[in-house]
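Researcher: Structure for this, please.
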Amino acid sequence: MKPIKKIIILSIWLITNFFYPQINNPNTSYTFPLRDLIEYFEKSKGITFSYDAVQLKEQDLIFNMPIGTKEEISLEDFLLTIQEQTMFEVKQKDNNYILYISNKPITISGKIIDLYSRKPLKNVMISDLKNKVYSDSNGNFNINTKVLDTLVIISDKYINKILEVSKLKKKSNRIIEMIEDSEVLDEVLLMEDYITSGINKEPDGSIVIYPKKSKLLPGLIEPNILQSIQTIPGLNSVSENVRDFSTRGSTPDLNLILWEGIKIYTPGLFFDKLDLFNAYTVEKAKIYRSATSASYGGSVGGIIDISSTSEITDKIQGGVGINSTLFNTNLEIPLGKKIGISLAGRYTNNDLITSNKFNSLKDNILNNTELNESLSIYESISNSFTFYDYNSKIIWDLSSKNRLTISSIGNKTQLKSSQKLLDLDEIRVEDVKYYSNGISVNWKSNLSQNISSSFLSQFSNFKYKGMSNFDIISNFRLTGISRENEITDFSTKYNLEYSINKSMRMFSGYEFTFNEFDVSYGNDLINVLNVNDNFITQGAYSEFLFKKRAFMIRAGVRANYYGGDRISWEPRLLSNVNFLNNFNLNVSFERKSQAVRQNLEEPSVSSRSIVDSNSIWWIGITNSFSSESIIPNLVEEIPLLFSDQFTSGVTFRKKGWDIDIEAYFKKNNGIGVINNTAIEEGNFSLFQGKGKIYGIDFLIRRKIGKYRTWLSSSFSKNLIKFPDFRTDYFPSSYNIGKVFNWSHTLDLKNFELGGSFTFQSGAPYSIPSKYIQILPGDTSQNDSFNIQYNEYNNFHLPDYHRLNASLLYSFNWNKKKENKIKMGISVQNILNRKNIISRTYDRIKRNQEEAIEVPFFDEIDDEQNGTIKLFKNDNMGLPFTIDLLFRVNF
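Model: Predicted structure, token format:
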């Protein structure tokens, strides 16, 4: 067959399979002007119509398939459609048809929702001044009225609406969107579609993501909360891990992540490579980069507050799908009109499917550890991964004024590995796993027309455990080498809201939190570290909110009591004002404190074992930090972390252009670092320091029809100081000076296309200055060493950049809009660039031959005993990676 014939046949096949189904879509509708149809039937049928031209106005009629042209409309269908979609009745007299207005009875049904959150609104009054009804818990209503009447939609918290029945009559899908009264500011105070559809910037400076409304983001093919967050300026990642993002310079452990009020301590699924949250059950995720409400405590970083579905459906709905790494399913089941349940789960599919993405993620996890399958020290090696997550929610409308919800979430990630080493009759075993579970109970009540309350109680437990039975360097078997970390969090929170009037509100509340944590590291011979403690935090807050057209101010204070003389007074202030119609200015100041965090600022750790490199050290303030070992250890108090933050920004909106600029400054005190080099000998020390962060975030967005493009960038400086080993400020490990992203999306009927280019400065790293052996012995066999540095983070890796693209195709598989099939493909790192995420030095050669020679010292006599070779180990980013999606929603 000639090439030209092949091209023609392929083109016909593509048109038939992709475009023809759209042409014959039974949901397609066509609109015709009523006047044009009257003229057509008068000419083609030899009949006449009598009507009042003023009353007729510019009215249209809508016809669904298979009708597509005027010639396909019968006279009977035409007359029936006039009576169904307009206020006119039709009376025939011989060959003359008279159109006249009749105020006939009619039943109007519809649904009332919030314009921005898309949540159904209950107890909203619908009245025609003669009859009145109220919307139910799902926002639905039915009212008997007349064609010429007018409906008034009335709600205490929303702007009232007046609608003509004659206009509602012709709509088949009657969705009435309401705007909250307290949020009626000038348009520039609310950036709808901040980046793309379903991502908005609220007047309080927060960014809200609505996954079910969100359009495609380049590099993704389905909703993804933690990766979507990282498209927002100021939320930058020093790696490609989903949770390893810094909120304006703050380390990831300083972010407070909530799921239905449950505190989340787990990193991402699959060793932080996949999003922890099933976005198909998420209603909205609210992100604060700064200017947080006084109701939030326990965090000096950003806030990610995630809410799952809040609607009781009237039928079973959900979806099932598969991508390159996970099976995914979710269900929403009504158990009557007042009770509904939501269930969702995801499970690894790597036992059945071997995909490019799974292999890329697996290699990325193992590449810089002893479990790298390409190392020549093994005769054989087997690595097995298991990971899954689940969540559920029960919604119970106890009455029209009381709602009870019970939510749960859980997950687990585990790696089991066994290796047969060359020249040794040994089987090396490693087992690493972390898992968490949480549950919350939330009771919301409308006590009166102006007073509402909520009572939330939550329990969260996170546990990490890593075990290894063999050390490669020392060739020494130890049964039960392990790291363990467990944290339990229980809290109750009561919030009272009083609406003084339409412009002013007061919030007050109390929060009680109990934390218990356990950290241990050791083996059968020595117990290097053992910390077990608990503490109680009590917090009280009060906040005042005023919103009036182009001005908003929120002022509050929070007091946290940590026991003893440790109390933190935390003022919070936000002001937002519109000027010159198109500009909006915001200024905020806040003080925050945090008692539970991880050890993430260590500048010199080189992790050899998967047990070390994936350990999670959650630890809280306690009277003492101690360890038991054969070597004496430092005993110190874990400091409380304080942060003062100032932010100022301006927003401009005009004729499809959106520009958002914010500058910020942070001052942190109480940074704590556990220096755990030579951890096997218990050589612990606790460094305390402080830091300062300043920067500017910038976003410009333009929408032209179905095409969107946005350019975002961040410029920042992140400095820390630890007087114990350096008196001046030096770059933090999270000092990423420049971040730049340029993205594009295009909607073409049922197709969504996206592409993006990301650039960021290389992360800082340190080069060793000398090598100290702590215990005497053969340097080729003994693992008791300490790598030391003269300078910290004074070198930078090569700049990082990546090109991503996505394509998503969706279509309805029957007449119902919610019954949809989605198929998609995304490609990350199209150019297959070898991005370096981080760099360390160690005695084990893994993925590179390059090494440096450093002086070798014996700690006992402090004499140089020659030099030793340290190999450079680079942790690389993902290579060219493809992800595929197939999903059915019903």
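Researcher: Any notable elements?
Model: The CA atoms of residues 360 and 878 lie 6 Å apart. The first strand starts at residue 29 and ends at 33.
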